[in-house]
Amino acid sequence: MDLEATIMELIINAGESKNLAMSALASAKKGEWNEVDALLEQSTKATQRAHGIQTELIGMDEGCGKVPVNLIMVHAQDHIMTAMLARELIEELIDIHRSLQRNS
């Protein structure tokens, strides 16, 4: 396994997840609910891919320090955690937009 390529794949998928969620929020502001749902679904799939890679890396490490921790690895972890948190908050904001638009 090419560790650096695997880590970059994690970063790319995490970034894609966050970007898709942000696009879903922009669509929610416009009331484009079919687009919102499609973008959130795509975001979920990107998150799952990133999480799968993260799980694979954790499995390779076996809690024994077998996988070297370097700056790119820390950066990748930052990306996935930020993307996951952003997505959760964006879903809450989308729910608020949905509610407000329904009640107006």
TrEMBL record:
PROSITE patterns assigned to the protein according to its UniProt record, in alphabetical order: PTS_EIIA_TYPE_3
Record key words, sorted: Phosphotransferase system, Sugar transport, Transferase, Transport
The protein's name in its UniProt record: PTS lactose/cellobiose transporter subunit IIA
Keyword set includes Transferase: yes
Source superkingdom: Bacteria
Modified residues (Phosphohistidine): H75
InterPro entries cross-referenced by the UniProt entry: PTS_IIA_lac/cel, PTS_IIA_lac/cel_sf
